[in-house]
User: Which sequence fits this backbone?
């Protein structure tokens, strides 16, 4: 299980204003505004195709927004170099994209050497500490195929944490996992939230959103339909569209 002692994060604020994104001529994100305060967790929920992944891709500039603004702490994220931005905002996907022929330790250490320019020895030291942080100290020498899906996802999270990000984003990080492995990864995510990381989490795990989120954002058809506390969103939904969504997923 993840360690809970010691390490605290200093998450930054993330603020989206009027974000609009398109693929070709088709607008899939329309005038989205949301603020994630430092050290808080926002969960984004909504039906498939509502633009959740596109939003995360826009924040990280994997797909450039058409208009609107993204601010990370005091910086205009759309004016930063994309590789600098991606060091400051970690993104964890459903599929972990680990190097299959490298150990867990090397997967994390390689990122440190490539991105942070660390020496081999320093990268190995930091990578070991990061794996310990996600509860995988004993698995450092295992290759991905010798790890469970949940452990592989925790390696991917350790790799993202190794960049010392100010914000962590998760895109359905547990959707590809066998049911019995989901909890370990969700616990780790909750643990990061408790320790001050700023988190933007796209998830179908309504129990997680209810328990961990400071704010829940419901999206449909590229727009934010409703946003509020878990209590507001899950127990007192206002829009018919959200009520219908909840009746289908809860
Ligand atoms: N690379 C792409 N090219 C064209 N259309 C895309 C692409 N990725 C996503 N879309 C479309 O954009 C819309 C939003 O998709 P997405 O952000 O993946 O939604 P979600 O993550 O909520 O399921 C969908 O209509 C989807 O078909
Ligand atoms: Mg998606």
Assistant:
């Amino acid at each position: 299980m993840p360690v809970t002692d010691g390490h605290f994060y200093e998450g930054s604020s993330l603020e989206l204003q009027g974000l609009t994104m398109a693929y070709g001529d088709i607008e899939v994100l329309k005038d989205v505004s949301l603020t994630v305060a430092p050290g808080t967790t926002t969960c984004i929920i909504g039906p498939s195709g509502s633009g959740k992944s596109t939003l995360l891709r826009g924040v990280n500039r994997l797909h450039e927004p058409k208009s609107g603004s993204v601010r990370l702490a005091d910086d205009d994220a759309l004016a930063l170099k994309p590789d600098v931005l991606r060091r400051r905002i970690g993104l964890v996907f459903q599929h972990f994209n680990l190097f299959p022929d490298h150990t867990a330790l090397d997967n994390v250490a390689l990122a440190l050497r490539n991105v942070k320019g660390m020496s081999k020895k320093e990268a190995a030291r930091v990578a070991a500490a990061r794996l310990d942080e996600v509860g995988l100290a004993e698995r450092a020498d295992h290759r991905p195929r010798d790890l469970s899906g949940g452990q592989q996802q925790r390696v991917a999270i350790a790799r993202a944490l190794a960049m010392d990000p100010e914000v962590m984003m998760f895109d359905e990080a547990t959707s590809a996992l066998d049911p019995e492995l989901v909890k370990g990864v969700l616990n780790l995510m909750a643990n990061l939230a408790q320790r001050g990381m700023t988190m933007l989490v796209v998830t179908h795990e309504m129990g997680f959103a209810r328990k961990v989120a400071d704010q829940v954002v419901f999206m449909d058809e590229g727009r934010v339909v409703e946003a509020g506390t878990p209590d507001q969103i899950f127990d007192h939904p206002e829009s018919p569209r959200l009520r219908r969504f909840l009746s289908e997923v809860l």
